[in-house]
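DM between two lab members

TW: hey, do you still have the Transketolase entry open?
JB: yeah, one sec
JB: this one, 662 aa:
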Amino acid sequence: MSTIDTTCVNAIRVLSADAIQKANSGHPGLPLGAAPIAYELWANHMKHNAKNPKWADRDRFILSGGHGSMLLYSLLHLFGYGLTLDDVKQFRQDGSLTPGHPEYGHTVGVEATTGPLGAGMSMAVGMAMAEAHLAAVFNKPEYPVVDHYTFVLGGDGCMMEGISSEAFSLAGTLGLSKLIVLYDSNNISIEGGTDIAFTENVQERMQAFGFQTLEVADGNDLEAIGKAIEEAKADTEHPSFITIHTQIGYGCPAKQGKASAHGSPLGDENIVAMKENLGWPSTEPFYVPDEVYAHYEELSKKGAAAEDAWNALFADYAAKYPDMKAKWDAFHSAVDAQALLENEDFWAYADKPQATRNLSGIMINRLKDLVPQLIGGSADLAPSNKTYMDDAGDFSKGNYGGRNFHFGVRELAMGGMTNGLALHGGLRPYAGTFFVFSDYMKPMIRLAALMKLPTTYVLTHDSIGVGEDGPTHEPIEQLAMLRATPNVNVFRPADATETAAGWYLAVTSQETPTALVLTRQNLPQLAGSSKEALKGGYIVADAAKETPDAIIIASGSEVSLAVEAKDMLAKEGVDVRVVSMPCMELFEQQDDVYKAQVLPANVRARVAVEAASDFGWGKYVGLDGATVTMQGFGASAPAELLFEKFGFTAENVANTVKSVLK
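TW: and the structure you got?
JB:
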């Protein structure tokens, strides 16, 4: 290791330790131990350009161990990504560009929001899938316009989390050779040595998944780290996993190799001792020698030159293949929302009862030609979720150009991989499973919402209508769970028009994930349904008089039930309005005038009908209203019997309205 390389590695350590100490909060152990890995990768093996952090063919780097965020911030500062020394000094402070864990879209150069351990591993697999797919679609002989690697760095905690195993199992099956995992192995977790809970042979586990496995004995040996990275790149058949043995808190005599280095500032005295131990030229906080900045600036020039070469290649490609250039632009542009809104073929439907899961399948196959960047799949449930795109091919080791993804029974990792597909750029992914198993996906849906990714979740078998499979498969609280998640549009359509509206919302969304909650059972097409569903709530069947006696509010399969109840009440002289509420989130975004038109404040007799928990309906029915909802779990029986058993009949809804009016 040259003197300047040593100093540049130590600059990462010193900046990280100083920032954490100033904040009096943070995790110094990972940055100190993994600094040589990050420096060697970013300096000599990773294709990136600080002057254009969104360059399409850059290599991706994800810090899966997001608690070690100062490692990434130090790199972004030193390599010239626009993160200033003042930004570094504001680590973990309100409004700063250096929050406690890396946040995508907030700090330039951060490729993914990480923090929940293992999540970054699954998102990296998704990014590698995206690279493989786009390369298959766009590359031509002598024109590898999509040709980059995905690097992900994580530690023992990431390897313990089950999401990593789910994702790596699929990565090995798919032979994603552009995926390189850097395992910061220091045998320390928060509670002490990893032997208390984690003794497996990780290398053999990764071999079993189908990875090339490599090992570096000394985490400070830049030459050995570099050699392993190049060996990983040379394997074009398998993803690669590099175990690099490090010492947590390296350089701090009192903390090195100890669990106490993980999640607490080192302390002023220990930082001074660390700087002296490392031979750092000053004990002044945040001091970095000019020659270090100069060296990092020289390193950054390689990235700019790499992009210049790619730009020249792409210009030639565009001239030779103008049709592919047009396709590239389509993949990397937003969907034309107005054109889709006015597309009569997209909105057309057969006037017969159909399950909304079937209608969703029809929409997917209409969209596959209208939205060429649409890709997706299911957690081994495509025949049930109706997520398969006809004649679009299966994404596999032998055909990365296929648009149908087979995620296997891996809902949690599927959510993470879907995030990675979206983060990569150029694709609009969807993922499907039974609605009850959105529980398994929730952490990754939350991250998608936090990152403002327009991912789509096709969640079928949405209620006790599942029937004979029983309460383990009948979602009750899941609607409330997803509705409680900020920045998620939960859309439960009642018929074909509303299902089309849900998909329109999904593919035109720019910053919000969409959860499409769909039935197994057939539903009638509603005479009053319309594109007004895009407002989240609207009048689907109005009262005869200007001020209705009562309002029934429902979503999904219960809207037709509400209409039946309205007709029944009309025969008794009770004049009722029915409001379809496919998406509370969209309704809340409407102005007060519209909301008052749909739900006038002077009509306090309101009943909400939904075959799920009543949680969340209170704000619409108020203290004077009532709900026809589930008060417990379901049961195993034919769906028709269950709806009657739990009170989802027109007669019970009508009686509930009358009781409210009394």
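TW: got it. The chain has a mean pLDDT of 98. The longest strand covers residues 606-613.
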